[in-house]
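explain this.
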Amino acid sequence: MTIAVSVVVNPSRSVLLSICAMAAAAALAAVLILVGADELNLATRLQIFSIVSISSVAAVFSACQTRKTFHIDISGIGQIRLTQYSGVSVFQKNAGLALDGQSGLVVHLSPDSVLWPQFLLLRLKPTAGMGLSIPVLPDCIGETGFAELSVALRTIAKRNADGNIID
């Protein structure tokens, strides 16, 4: 059985929706504290409202800024090649290595990666430089692609745990 997989990992819409919903709930709570908490003085209510409002806007802005698309290629022997298609490359910032959408960078699956049935947190490290974390949910790829990627990554993780690391 081959573990060769090639998938495009898009940013998760459900994560963005969750962050926006939490920010909206926090903003609503701030408004309710501002209007309805009579036991607090006005200065305290304004401080709480300001802090929560700024935090909510920052959370949504941050979530929208970090949306990147990755192409993950896993060869039949378990070599992982990562290409970034959008935004400024984290690898370029940290290691001076560019991912330009034309070529990929060989990375290794870190042992602290999370491989759950419906959630993958890929901790990928190049041979030089700092690593990168990529959260992958089924809505990032599609059900069949997610299952194939999950099986391939579990096989690679098992090989790495047994000491058979592929370069």
